[in-house]
Design a protein that fits this description.
single chain, alpha/beta, Spore Coat Polysaccharide Biosynthesis Protein SpsA, Chain A, 8-stranded mixed sheet, globular
């Protein structure tokens, strides 16, 4: 029994060590982008996919038009994808170029963006910004992106922050988790010279990158897009000074539909590409490619935490009832792993100087961890189909 536990511990230490490596790399903050001496010259196109977003789209367009950036270098395009409301009209009245898409089935954000990009990538812009229909950004957002582009970056992921933590337990917990995820998963990778995540929102691409690759497909097209970029040798740079704010689902029902889509889509997107990333990474000795593959192969933080907690408690109980079936040192090694996993998110919040409320809600994280692990198992082994479902914005109160 002890040998089985030791082997399991060795297997768990790989993903835990991987998380610790990213966390250590994220201790160093990202240097602020250098201010350009000359006036910005990057011609930006902002693209926004929208399905029945009449409640928020006008305010979003008006907000983005108020960026501290030369208005002649900025155009906003909205794709009203199979809308049954007046999203297109409201976007146009607010100052955007509205495109109505009604052809083919409504399959989600990926196909809508791909359709829109074929229309706007005509050589009239230098870079493309992708925002969700409810996104709010700080006034310096485009200037920060311009500075990074001028420094040579090809793809830049801004910091995605949850804007509605006061709307309930789930948004509050999601905000705290995003703070940790941005710091460790994105900043850690960028500091190591690897590729940050594509969050699907508040992300900037040089126009020629999208002209070459197009947009990803499937339920999680952003995840697939990151893998395609890696295979082309393009890394996503994380820029925390470019801050974008978006809403999290307010209810468990909305959250379940969204998370199930992410988990199933991530699994489907990783199948054809992860093995190639790993083999190419080993052949080229490119750690960024290997990292892209490991993200697909290794279990998530939630899954590792559930496994570690279950095995630690089980071994404690067995030893308590039947004597030292498992070596005590081995049992407490499992306890040490569990301790590291407990400290991990709290350390991320500390580095981000999060408010006390974020620490308090993070202490309820075990509930989310169990829930997410169950969803992950359902996505992997369940037979029920998962389709794209709109996440309500603004009108969910």
């Amino acid at each position: 029994m002890g040998i089985v536990s030791a082997i399991a511990l060795g297997l768990v230490l790989l993903p835990v060590g991987y998380l610790v490596l990213l966390a250590v790399a994220a201790v160093r903050p990202r240097p602020a982008p250098a201010s350009a001496d000359r006036a910005p010259a990057t011609r930006f196109v902002i693209v926004i996919p929208a399905h029945d977003e009449a409640s928020v789209i006008a305010a979003t367009v008006e907000h983005l038009r108020q960026q501290d950036y030369p208005p002649e270098l900025l155009a906003i395009h909205v794709v009203a994808d199979h809308c049954s409301d007046n999203t297109a009209l409201l976007a146009q009245q607010a100052g955007a170029v509205a495109h109505e898409r009604n052809e083919g089935p409504r399959t989600g954000k990926g196909d809508a963006l791909a359709w829109l990009l074929r229309r706007v990538l005509d050589g009239s812009c230098d870079a493309v910004m992708v925002f969700d229909s409810d996104t709010r950004v700080e006034g310096s957002f485009l200037r920060v992106m311009n500075a990074r582009l001028e420094a040579g970056a090809q793809v830049i992921q801004g910091q995605h922050i949850i804007s509605n933590p006061e709307d309930g337990w789930f948004p509050a917990l999601t905000r705290a988790m995003f703070l940790v995820d941005n710091r460790f998963q994105n900043l850690g990778r960028t500091n190591l010279g690897w590729s940050a995540k594509n969050m699907g929102d508040s992300i900037c691409f040089r126009a020629e990158v999208l002209q070459k690759l197009g947009w990803g497909k499937g339920l999680t097209e952003d995840y697939q897009m990151r893998q395609l970029l890696l295979m082309e040798g393009t890394k996503i740079i994380y820029e925390p000074a470019a801050r974008g704010y978006g809403e999290a689902p307010r209810s468990w029902l909305q959250a379940r539909a969204q998370r199930a889509r992410w988990l199933r889509g991530t699994r489907e997107a990783s199948r054809p590409l992860a093995r190639r990333l790993l083999l190419d990474g080993l052949k080229r000795r490119d750690l960024a490619l290997i990292d892209g593959a490991l993200q697909a192969y290794l279990p998530s933080f939630s899954t590792v935490t559930v496994i570690s907690a279950a095995l630690f408690l089980a071994q404690l109980l067995i030893n308590g009832y039947f004597g030292p079936v498992f070596p005590p040192g081995l049992v407490w090694a499992w306890g040490g792993v569990l301790g590291v996993l407990f400290i991990y998110p709290l350390a991320g919040l500390a580095l981000e100087r999060a408010p006390a409320s974020a620490y308090l809600v993070m202490l309820t994280g075990p509930v989310f961890v169990v829930w997410r692990t169950w969803l992950a198992l359902s996505a992997r082994y369940g037979r029920r189909g998962v389709t794209w479902v709109r996440t309500a914005h603004g009108d969910a109160r």
